[in-house]
Amino acid sequence: QVRLVESGGGLVLAGGSLRLSCAASGSIFSVNDAGWYRQAPGKQREPVATTTIDGDSDYAESVKGRFTISRDNAKNTVYLQMNSLKPEDTAVYYCNAQTRTWPDYRSLEVWGQGTLVTVSS
Question: What backbone torsions phi and psi does residue 41 show, to the nearest 5 degrees?
Fold first, then answer.
């Protein structure tokens, strides 16, 4: 079984920064494509940033230039550095990963439980 555990959410003033972490654990061989998604109250879940195992990344237009996704493949961990936060960034942030399990090398998509980010004006 594979789990994703997110951390780093919290309350921050507009203009501030937070760093989210997503650590994969369990019977895991590797984390392949991964990403961060968010869901604001009353809205659908939307992609924020994604990264491939080779480190290529993509961002939602609303966060380009402010958020940076990164990863440490040795630690099976993905990060989201969020700078210049705005009240409209308030949401529950979820980590998603396409993993390969150990020892059967099966592909498994996993979601984290979510971490709340609140940006106050």
Answer: -55, 130
Rounded-to-integer distance, Cα 104 and Cα 37, Å: 28
* Separation between Cα atoms, residue 83 and residue 109, nearest integer Å: 28
- Specify which residues 93 forms β-bridges with: 38, 115
Cα 67 to chain centroid, rounded? 11
Dist. CA 93–CA 103, nearest whole Å = 30
10 CB-near residues (< 8 Å, 6+ apart): 18, 116, 117, 118
Distance from C-alpha of 73 to C-alpha of 78, rounded to nearest angstrom: 8
* Average pLDDT of the chain, as a whole number: 96
- The 10s digit of each residue's pLDDT in 32-91 is 999 999 999 999 999 999 999 888 999 999 999 999 999 999 999 999 999 999 999 999
Residue 55: per-residue pLDDT: 85
State the burial class of residue 118 (Cβ atoms within 10 Å of its Cβ: 0-12, 13-18, 19+): middle
